[in-house]
Amino acid sequence: MTSETTEKNTLASAPIGGLMLKYAIPSVIALVVNALYNIVDQVFIGWGVGTLGNSATNVIFPLNMVMMALALLIGDGGAAYLSLELGRGNKEKAGKGTNNTFSWLIIVAVLFFIVCSVFLRPLTGLFGATPDNLEYALAYGRIILIGFPFAMIGCGFCSLIRADGTPQLTMIAMIVGCVSNVILDALFVLGFGWGMEGAAIATVIGQILNFAISMWYVPRFKTVKIRLSEMKPQFSLLKRISGLGVSSFVSQIAVAVVMTVINYYLVHCGAESEYGSDIPLAAFGIVMKFNTILTSIVTGIATGSQPIVGYNYGSGNYTRVRKCFYLAAGSATIIAFVFFLVFQFMPYQLTALFGNQGDLYTAFSVMSFRIFPMLCFLNGFTTVVAIFFQSIAKPIISGLVSLSRQIIFLIPAVIILCGTIGLNGVLWAGPTADGLAFILALLFIIWELRKLGNDLSDKKEAA
Prior knowledge:
Elements: H1 3-13, H2 16-48, H3 51-87, H4 91-118, H5 120-126, H6 134-163, H7 167-191, H8 195-216, H9 235-244, H10 246-271, H11 278-314, H12 318-345, H13 347-352, H14 359-371, H15 379-391, H16 395-408, H17 410-421, H18 424-462
């Protein structure tokens, strides 16, 4: 029996709990480790540079999220395409899709690097740079950009590796990159005193190591083969692949859009408060980065279920599809509730990780932790629903659920609440958007699960 046949039999018949552990744990670790890159930088910058350095990393953070969004648009889309076509028995289509995913990752990564390099200064202005932190942001950003092509290709390709049945390798690649980043951050920022530049160099080296390990897997694909002859980019395949990856893209790009809007209001409303512009920008950035860890974990659980859901949906095994959804949604909700408890009861400890930067800084950070993620325990369910629809090739619903939380509800809430209650409006917009997005996701998934149940009944009656 070939490894490909074994993998198919496993997805179709192995216990779902074991499969979820196999795919979700490496996926969670990979995404969390990737999120830790920026957090680790900010911790060392907080101790080595201070508030202005931390606010500067928050200016560059949206740019990093755009990069990740593009990587997941193509990478997660390609992974979903691979799983669906293998489930349908279309190995040739699966191979072409995988090869095109790889080639488009390279093309988009190079183009993104060029655009960001040319327009870095105006982009920092767009993302909330102040006169005080602008030079810090530029010093950090100019170096971080060098690692973007490596990070984008490596991250996108890791999605394919997971779908190919080797999720453990993505975990190893991410851990090696992150551990090296932590060690080099300590050495460059605190040891050598290189400040913002040192933190950026450490991050780039970690991303290159991650990329190198991922590329080692290229000739070792099991289900399909990576061939130069099949890597000619096709826009028709890009359209199909990107459609399947739209939920992951929206989840990431929405963070960039939201951070741009929030940074604007933090700076301008903060200037009219006792906190000033830079304190809210730096302190709220800590909350968003810890929230990114939560998002990474629940997204990892959801994307870990993607090969199982995609394969069984493609082969018509709807009972396993539903069981996998329930397990993923339940697990993600438990994790989200744990984070809710940490945010509510340990805000002082979380803030202290980034150094002692004054009473006002601590006060705003603690208030942010307790208000903005007040309903974050709902977000695990919402995220799983969005990626579930992506896994069953319904990108419009998937994208709508993802957009609802970050764009459709959150941005209007920020604008309206800031206009009525000032700076604190940014914080109260969080639970407002989370609650409304949960209701929308619940309505969509109830409709879909009922439909799957009806389809399953029809198949049994036909048999």
